[in-house]
Every structure is written in C-alpha cells, then in structure tokens.
C-alpha cells in the first residue's frame, strides 16, 4: 500500500478576499466620517429667543455651516449656553476673534433687517476673525457687528455731543444721494 502524497497549498483561498475587501471599505468609511465630522463649539448669548435645537443653523454668506445641537440656561451668569456642531470647512476660522450673533427680523424707523427670518426662522450669523489662536468658546453679540475694518471703502468714526435721530442703518447723504450708512454707535464716557 502506498501512502497518499499530501501537499499544503501556499496561497490564500479566494474566499478570504471578500472579508478583506469588506474590512477595507469599513476602514475607509470610518476614516471618511472622522475627517468630515466637524467640531462642536459653545456660544454664550444673553437671550435665546428664536434659537431652536436641531433647527437653527449657523449661516455664512448664505450657506449653512453649522447647526444648533442644544441650549441650556446658565442662570448663575445670566446667559444661555448654546452648543453648535460646525462643519469641517469652517474649523480653521474658529479663532478667538470670530464673531457670532442671532439674526432676527427687526423693524425700525431707519431700516428693515432680517426680513427673510420671518419665514425661515432665526439663524446665527458668523464673521471670521483674523487671529491664529483657535478656540471652541465664544461670546455671542446682541446684534450684527459693524462692517469689518478690512472691508473695502472709507470708514469714519464721528464723535458728537448729541445723538439726535441717528440709528444703526441711518443713511448718510451727499447731494441727496445715499453714500453710506451708520454701522453703529456707542456712549463714550
């Protein structure tokens, strides 16, 4: 009687290629979701009127770049803590001097602002800062900031003893042609 000749195969069975491919796809999906996950930031506002978790967006130049996840009152400091999930594309702009404010419909004698929020609801505006120090905590502004100093055009600061009827948005005229607007005013002591 002869003994059978048994040879071991040195190659991997083709059946193992399917689990290896599935593992590679899972690893790629995990890496991709990690890369695009974004970041959570905290913004403190004095008032949360119009902010709705899961609905209120952070909008930059008309494009949504974040979504409010939760809001909690901070009664000790008389403010509201807003947690926002920001998209990955704006992470580099989340620095110390980045500004956030809530855009609501406002009607005044001089102007109408935020009219689009009547149908879509309030949203949080963002203005990128120039600092290089990243942060994840911000103090929200009560209203939109004035136009940044780096914006093209002339910027003037005028001091007067009496404010009169000047408001944010009041037109500045030359020969009955509007050439500018008042961006803001403050009391100087």
Descriptive report:
The chain is of the alpha+beta class. Helix content is 12%, strand content 30%. The chain has two helices and eleven strands. It has helices at residues 17-35, 117-120; strands at residues 39-45, 57-60, 63-74, 79-86, 99-103, 106-107, 112-113, 123-127, 137-139, 171-174, 177-181. Strands 5-8-2-3-4-1-9 form a seven-stranded mixed beta sheet, with no helix packed on it. Strands 6-7 form a two-stranded antiparallel ribbon. A hairpin with a 2-residue loop joins strand 10 (171-174) and strand 11. The longest helix is centred in the N-terminal third of the chain and has 19 residues, at 17-35. It is elongated. The chain starts with 16 loop residues before the first helix and ends in an 8-residue tail after the last strand. The model has no long low-confidence stretch (mean pLDDT 83).
């Amino acid at each position: 009687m002869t003994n059978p000749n048994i040879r071991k195969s040195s190659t991997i069975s083709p059946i193992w290629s399917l689990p290896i491919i599935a593992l590679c796809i899972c690893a790629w999906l995990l890496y991709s979701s990690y890369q695009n996950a974004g970041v959570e930031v905290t913004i403190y506002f004095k008032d949360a009127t119009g902010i709705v978790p899961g609905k209120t967006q952070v909008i930059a130049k008309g494009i949504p770049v974040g979504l409010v996840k939760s809001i909690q009152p901070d009664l000790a400091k008389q403010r509201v803590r807003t947690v926002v999930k920001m998209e990955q594309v704006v992470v580099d702009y989340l620095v110390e001097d980045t500004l956030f404010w809530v855009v609501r419909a406002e009607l005044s004698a001089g102007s109408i602002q935020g009219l689009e929020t009547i149908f879509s609801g309030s949203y949080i505006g963002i203005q990128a800062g120039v600092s290089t120090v990243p942060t994840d905590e911000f103090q929200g502004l009560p209203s939109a900031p004035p136009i940044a100093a780096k914006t093209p055009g002339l910027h003037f600061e005028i001091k007067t003893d009496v404010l009169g009827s000047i408001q944010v948005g009041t037109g500045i005229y030359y020969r009955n042609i509007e050439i500018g607007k008042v961006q803001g005013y403050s009391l100087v002591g």
